[in-house]
Design goal:
Blueprint: H1 10-19, H2 30-53, H3 60-92, H4 97-102, H5 106-130, H6 151-193, H7 204-224, H8 232-261, H9 265-268
């Protein structure tokens, strides 16, 4: 059974708990987990190299919100692909296996919901800090004391109270923004690494669904265009590297589960 380190900060621990498979009888292969982690680390390193080597096509803020949008699109793609894939998987299994698999979908749904939750908080807190959602210009002069200190003094004191409230609110929003950004990053990395806890339904599902997810995201990014001003000879291999590596790893995982643990689609369906 997977465990989450309790020493992690709150947002990181919560993100890890939401995106880590926790089924008691889950087959956990250390080599598969290690290869997944290496693949994820190499993908992050390649992305960081590309961003540091070539200038962004748009500003940093636009790039950030573009990535959040792509993240939400990815959630939608995974929801559709996952729903179809898990439904077919459950319907293909003999009773009572099908019903047992259907009862396990709560974990993947929670893992998937973590991303739009975190991305939504990042967007909301950024809008508040920018003054797009609320700003001091929206609030006129008020005397909270009803003239007790005089109109001028009451308005001045009320203004100071409002300024202090806005400052405190800004600090709170900044803390929430940092926490939400860390939460979203960890949820995205660990969620993609575990294919959003689909192993809670069955060990074969991450290997089956992950190529569908990454190739769908590949199409989305191909249509959207490159985020950096990089030559095609660099950007195209970078774009293809993720889907090809994930597909190759998925084929290897299926083979390892079959040869080492006897897990096959026929055995999963009870046939």
């Amino acid at each position: 059974m997977s465990t989450v380190r309790s020493g992690l900060p709150g947002p990181l621990s919560l993100a890890a708990a939401l995106t880590t498979p926790t089924r008691a009888d889950l087959i956990e292969d250390p080599l598969i987990a290690r290869v997944r982690a290496i693949r994820t680390a190499l993908g992050l390193a390649a992305t960081a190299w590309l961003l540091l080597t070539y200038p962004l096509r748009e500003g940093r803020a636009d790039y950030l919100f573009g990535q959040l949008l792509n993240l939400l699109i990815g959630c939608g793609v995974l929801l559709v692909c996952g729903t179809v894939g898990i439904t077919v998987f459950c319907l293909g299994a003999r009773r009572p296996l099908g019903r047992m698999y259907a009862r396990r979908v709560g974990g993947p749904l929670r893992a998937l919901a973590a991303l739009p939750l975190g991305a939504g908080l990042v967007w909301l807190m950024t809008a508040v800090l920018r003054g797009d959602a609320v700003s001091t210009s929206m609030i006129g002069a008020h005397d909270f004391f009803g003239g007790f200190f005089g109109t001028t003094a009451g308005t001045l004191i009320s203004g100071l109270i409002m300024a202090a409230a806005f400052l405190a609110g800004g600090l709170v929003c900044l803390c929430v923004l940092v926490s939400a950004a860390c939460f979203t990053l960890v949820a995205a990395v660990r969620g993609l690494n575990s294919c959003f806890r689909t192993a809670d339904v069955h060990e074969l599902l991450p290997a089956v669904l992950s190529p569908l997810l990454v190739w769908s995201l590949f199409v989305v990014q191909l249509v959207d265009g490159p985020d950096v001003v990089a030559p095609p000879v660099v950007f195209v291999p970078f774009l293809l590297g993720g889907p090809l590596s994930v597909t190759a790893l998925a084929v290897w995982e299926v083979r390892r589960l079959r040869t080492r643990y006897g897990v096959t689609l026929r055995s999963a369906w009870g046939r």
